[in-house]
Structure formats: structure tokens, C-alpha cells
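Quick illustration, no need to memorize.
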Amino acid sequence: MNLRTIILAFLAERYPAAYAENTVLQRVNKCGLLDAPATQDQVREELRTLANRFKMADPALDRVSGAVYWTATEEGVKQWHLDGQTHVG
């Protein structure tokens, strides 16, 4: 399974909750669905691709802390259902 699909599954399963990039990285690496651990840069790039190219994820800025949190969009949740609703623990 590819990293993008796993990230989308993690976010969509928990929609509408939003997660920090580091949390996404930790969870996708712990799920056991990747052949090799993902890096922070790989996760960041896939999140940006999901948001900018596919409109399946959105960044949300915490104006107090300046932190960015990521959530699936409704389109992302629809795609997750089509992909078979993979569980990412």
C-alpha cells in the first residue's frame, strides 16, 4: 500500500478531526502497512499533494500557536470509502 493512501485512510477514518504532521507520521509508521518507515519530508509532500492536487485533505492553522493541523475533506472521505476503508490504527 502506498503512503498517500495510508495517510488518507488515517485522516478520513477520523474525519473531521485534524492532526499535526508529526502525529500523522507516527501513526502511519506504526500501522505496519508500509514496507519501510516514512520520513517527515515524505509525509509533508503527500499531505500537500492530497490538499493541492486532489482536494482530499486540508490544512488548518491554529492562530494561537501557529501550528498546522491536517484533516480529510469530504472528497477524501468519499475516496477512502471507495478504497475499502482501510483502518490505520
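The mean pLDDT is 97.
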